[in-house]
Specification:
Radius of gyration: 27 Å
CATH superfamily of one domain: Outer membrane lipoprotein wza domain like
Shape: elongated
CATH architecture of one domain: Roll
Protein name: Polysaccharide export outer membrane protein
Strand order of the largest sheet: 9-8-12-10-11
GO molecular function: polysaccharide transmembrane transporter activity
Structural class: alpha+beta
Order of helices and strands: HEEEEEEHEEEHEEHEHH
Number of strands: 12
Number of helices: 6
Pfam families: Poly_export (PF02563), SLBB (PF10531)
Keywords: Signal
Organism: Phenylobacterium haematophilum
Length: 251
């Protein structure tokens, strides 16, 4: 009986050793025996499984989105000339003919749609559509003082947008700021910018912004960029940004 107990002890010790070492992730200890957690992966690795398009500075045709003011003129019927606002569902409501879809259409596309709608009431209607001046809307998220949608007047860059959003938090990684934009083919594009260098060197490219750009400031050394993509793009972005970025950018 005593001999059997002696054999059991080494077996228990071996099983305990396997539980502590064989099934756990490697740990790093310093000279004082203190454990250090593993270094997080770089933030851009969190985007590796998202099918972004190649970045380009190509300037696309102006498209209308919810909140835009549009002047619709019908020279042959001046009483139909109106200034309209694109509603949250993407439509504008025309006199006589009712709502038509305006969101995600260019000026020539919308002129064609409105002319077709009025063709039931007018003979060969000629329609002129123009966009009224509006602030540059962008979304700033991550490690900034006041994340959310901000309006910028005139030309603006990513650094100015972040400053207007309350500036960098002490935990922000200003050297790895991400700008997300809708590309010419409708897919999202992503670009990384070193704005820390921009704070030190005036000649640095601070990335001029376009309407509905999304600026994300990650936490220093954090690998939570992918979580931001899921949470902000699917849950928190305003409806106008959903139109602007396109469905493929958030799926």
């Amino acid at each position: 009986m005593l001999q059997r107990r002696r054999r059991t002890v080494p077996m228990i010790a071996a099983c305990a050793g396997l539980a502590l070492t064989g099934c756990s992730t490697p740990r790093t200890y310093d000279v004082m025996g203190r454990w250090h957690p593993p270094e997080p992966a770089p933030a851009e690795q969190a985007f590796s499984n998202i099918p972004y398009a190649t970045w380009t500075d190509y300037e696309p045709d102006y498209r209308f989105y919810p909140g835009d003011e549009i002047e619709v003129a019908v020279p042959s019927a001046p009483e139909l000339t109106k200034t309209l606002v694109v509603q949250p569902d993407g439509r504008i409501t025309l006199p006589l003919v009712g709502p038509v879809m305006a969101a995600d259409r260019t000026i020539p596309e919308l002129e064609g749609v409105v002319a077709q709608a009025y063709s039931t009431q007018l003979l060969r209607p000629h329609v002129e559509v123009s966009a009224k001046a509006a602030p540059l809307k962008v979304f700033v998220g991550g490690e900034v003082g006041n994340p959310g949608v901000i309006d910028l007047n005139g030309d603006a860059d990513a650094l100015r947008a972040i400053i207007q959003a309350g500036g960098f938090r002490s935990s922000a990684d200003a050297s790895a700021v991400f700008i997300i934009r809708r590309g010419p083919d409708g897919r999202g594009m992503i670009r990384r910018a070193d704005l820390l260098r921009g704070l030190r060197h005036a000649e640095t490219d601070l990335v001029p912004l376009r309407r509905f750009d999304v600026i994300y400031v990650p936490r220093t050394g954090a690998a939570n960029a992918g979580l931001f993509m899921q949470q902000y793009f699917r849950d928190l972005l305003p409806v106008s940004f959903s139109y602007a970025l396109g469905a493929q950018a958030v799926q």
